[in-house]
C-alpha cells in the first residue's frame, strides 16, 4: 500500500511520490533558541521523527534538514528579536544565549530518542546567502528598499495566500507587520536596518541590519536540498505568515513551482486544556519532563494522538501513556521469556501466526494512511489481547512463530522509537551491584517523600534500559533487552 499524506496546500490526502525516486528531501522548522525547549517542542520533534522512521522503514533514503533560528525572529507584540529579548533577560550576548539553549535543545532531542537530522544549519551562519537571495528578489521586482529595510511585495506574487487560504483583502486582520512605508499591509520584511548599538547586525548593500525571519528557511532549504523539495514540516501555527511567506519568496526567487510538494503540519500541545504561556506559569520544560517520566512515556503520550490533532497534556493522559507503555513492555518481556522450540505447528500456533501476519498488515495500513499512530497503536493492543487469549500461559512456542512475533514487536519499537536500548548493559557483576546501590539510594528518597528525585532516578535508569517496578513496598529491577 502506498503512503498517503495530508497536504496542507491542497487540503486533502495525497499519494506520496517523491521528486527523485527513492529519495525524500524534508525540511522542518526547528527552534528559536532563546529559551529552554518545552513539551510542545518535544511533540513536534517526535512527529517528524516518526515520519522519518516510517519513510526509512518503507525503503526511502531520507535527507532531513532542521534549521536553528538564532537571529531575525521578531516577536511582533514588542517588535523585537526573540534572541535579543533572551539576551536582555539573562544579561548575555545573543550568541551566548543561542549556544546555551541550542545545547540544551540538542540534549533534549537525544534524550527523547529522536534520530539526528542530516544537517542542522543555523540562520546566523547563512547571512551572505540570504543577502544574495534578497538582491535577486529585488532585481526580479519582488523586493523593494525603504530606508535601509527591504520588503517583499506580495501583490507581485499572484499565488500569495494559496497555502493558508487567507485572501489578500483579509490580511489586515492577521499577524502582519504594521508600517506605513510598505506598499501593501501584508508585505513582509526580507531585511531590517539596525542601529550601531544593535548586537546582531551585518553589513549589506542596504546598510547594517539583519535578515527577516522568513528568508532563512528559503535560503537553507534551497542550499541543502535544492530548489524543490518533497516535504516541509512545522507546527500548524507556522502556516501563516511564516510558511506562506517562505513559499512566496522561494518560488519568486527560483521561478519553479512547487517549492514544496507536500506541506505537512502538526497540531499544538496544550496543558490542562490551556495554551502554554509564561504568564500562566504552565510551561513544562522538556528536560524536566524527561527527568520525571522518561523518553518512552513521553513518546507514547505523543503518538497517542494523530499528528494533525491538538493533544492535551494532563494527569490522565500521561497516566494512560504510562499504562500503555507498561502493557507493551510486559508483553514484550512475556514473549521473550517463552521458550523457543522446534516442533510441528499446533492449531493455536497457526492462529498466532495468522493474527501476527494480519497485525503487521493492519499496522502498516494505519501508518501508511497519513501516519495514523493512534490507529496503529489500536492494532497493536488488539493483537496483544488476541495473542494472550489464544496462548494463555503456555511456556513454549514454535521457533518460527516466536520469531515472527518478535519481528513484529521489534518493528513497532523501531518505528515508534520506544523501548529501544542503544547501549545494552551487561547483566552480571559490578553493574548489578551498582544498579542495586542506586535502587537503595532511591528508596531512601521515596521514604522521605522526595518524589521528584526518586522519579528522576527512575526515568534516568529507564533511559539506560533499566526498568524499576515498585511492588508491595519493595523495588525490583530488570534490564530491558536490546532490539
What are its keywords?
483 residues; alpha/beta; Rossmann fold; Four Helix Bundle (Hemerythrin (Met), subunit A); 3 domains; four-stranded parallel sheet; 45% helix
Describe the structure in your own words.
This protein has 483 residues and is of the alpha/beta class. The radius of gyration is 25 Å and the shape is globular. The strands form seven sheets. A four-stranded parallel sheet has the order 4-3-11-12, sandwiched between helices. A four-stranded antiparallel sheet has the order 7-8-9-10, with helices on one face. Strands 14-13-15 form a three-stranded mixed sheet. The longest helix is centred in the last third of the chain and has 23 residues, at 315-337. The protein contains 14 helices and 19 strands. Mean pLDDT is 91; it is low at 422-427. β5 (74-75) and β6 form a beta hairpin. Helix content is 45%, strand content 17%. The protein has three domains: 4-266, HUPs (Rossmann fold, 3-Layer(aba) Sandwich), CATH 3.40.50; 315-416, Four Helix Bundle (Hemerythrin (Met), subunit A); 430-479, no CATH class. α5 packs across α6 (239-254) and α13 packs antiparallel against α14.
CATH class of the largest domain: Alpha Beta
Rg calc: 25 Å
Q: What is the domain tally? A: 3
Tally the beta strands.
19
Q: Helical region count?
A: 14
Q: At the third CATH level, what is the topology name of the largest domain?
A: Rossmann fold
CATH architectural group of the largest domain: 3-Layer(aba) Sandwich
Question: Major sheet: size, sense and barrel closure?
Answer: 4 strands, parallel
Amino acid at each position: 500500500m502506498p503512503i498517503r499524506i495530508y497536504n496542507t496546500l491542497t487540503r486533502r490526502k495525497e499519494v506520496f511520490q517523491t521528486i527523485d525516486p527513492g529519495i525524500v528531501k524534508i525540511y522542518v522548522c526547528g527552534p528559536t533558541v532563546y529559551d529552554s525547549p518545552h513539551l510542545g517542542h518535544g511533540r513536534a520533534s517526535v512527529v517528524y521523527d516518526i515520519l522519518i522512521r516510517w519513510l526509512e522503514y518503507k525503503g526511502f533514503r531520507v535527507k532531513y534538514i532542521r534549521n536553528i533560528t538564532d537571529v531575525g525572529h521578531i516577536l511582533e507584540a514588542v517588535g523585537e528579536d526573540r534572541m535579543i529579548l533572551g539576551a536582555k533577560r539573562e544579561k548575555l550576548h545573543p550568541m551566548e544565549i543561542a549556544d546555551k539553549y541550542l545545547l540544551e535543545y540538542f540534549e533534549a532531542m537525544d534524550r527523547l530518542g529522536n534520530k539526528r537530522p542530516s544537517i542542522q544549519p543555523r540562520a546566523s551562519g547563512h547571512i551572505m546567502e540570504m543577502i544574495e537571495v534578497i538582491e535577486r528578489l529585488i532585481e526580479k521586482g519582488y523586493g523593494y528598499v525603504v530606508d535601509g529595510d527591504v520588503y517583499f511585495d506580495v501583490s507581485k506574487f499572484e499565488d500569495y495566500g494559496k497555502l493558508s487560504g487567507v485572501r489578500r483583502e483579509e490580511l489586515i486582520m492577521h499577524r502582519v507587520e504594521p508600517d506605513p512605508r510598505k506598499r501593501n499591509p501584508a508585505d513582509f520584511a526580507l531585511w531590517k536596518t539596525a542601529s550601531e548599538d544593535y548586537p546582531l547586525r551585518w553589513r549589506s548593500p542596504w546598510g547594517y541590519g539583519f535578515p527577516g525571519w522568513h528568508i532563512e528557511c528559503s535560503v537553507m532549504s534551497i542550499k541543502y536540498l535544492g530548489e524543490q523539495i518533497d516535504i516541509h514540516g512545522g507546527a500548524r501555527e507556522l502556516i501563516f505568515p511564516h510558511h506562506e511567506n517562505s513559499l512566496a519568496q522561494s518560488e519568486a526567487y527560483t521561478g519553479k513551482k512547487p517549492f514544496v510538494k507536500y506541506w505537512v503540519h502538526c497540531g499544538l500541545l496544550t496543558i490542562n486544556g490551556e495554551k502554554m504561556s509564561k504568564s500562566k506559569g504552565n510551561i513544562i520544560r522538556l528536560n524536566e519532563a524527561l527527568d520525571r517520566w522518561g523518553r518512552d512515556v513521553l513518546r507514547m503520550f505523543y503518538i497517542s494522538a494523530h499528528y494533525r490533532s491538538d493533544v492535551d497534556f494532563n494527569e490522565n493522559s500521561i497516566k494512560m501513556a504510562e499504562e500503555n507503555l507498561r502493557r507493551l513492555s510486559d508483553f514484550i518481556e512475556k514473549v521473550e521469556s517463552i521458550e523457543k522450540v522446534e516442533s510441528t505447528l499446533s492449531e493455536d500456533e497457526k492462529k498466532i501466526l495468522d493474527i501476527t501476519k494480519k497485525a503487521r498488515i493492519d499496522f502498516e495500513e494505519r501508518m501508511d494512511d497519513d501516519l495514523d499512530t493512534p490507529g496503529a497503536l489500536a492494532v497493536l493492543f488488539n493483537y496483544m489481547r488476541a495473542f494472550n487469549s489464544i496462548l494463555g500461559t503456555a511456556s513454549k512456542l514454535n521457533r518460527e512463530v516466536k520469531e515472527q512475533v518478535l519481528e513484529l514487536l521489534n518493528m513497532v519499537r523501531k518505528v515508534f522509537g520506544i523501548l529501544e536500548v542503544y547501549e545494552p548493559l551487561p547483566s552480571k557483576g559490578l553493574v548489578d551491584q551498582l544498579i542495586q546501590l542506586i535502587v537503595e539510594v532511591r528508596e531512601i528518597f521515596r521514604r522521605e517523600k522526595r518524589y521528584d528525585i526518586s522519579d528522576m532516578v527512575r526515568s534516568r535508569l529507564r533511559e539506560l534500559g533499566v526498568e524499576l517496578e515498585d511492588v508491595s513496598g519493595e523495588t525490583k529491577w530488570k534490564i530491558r533487552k536490546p532490539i
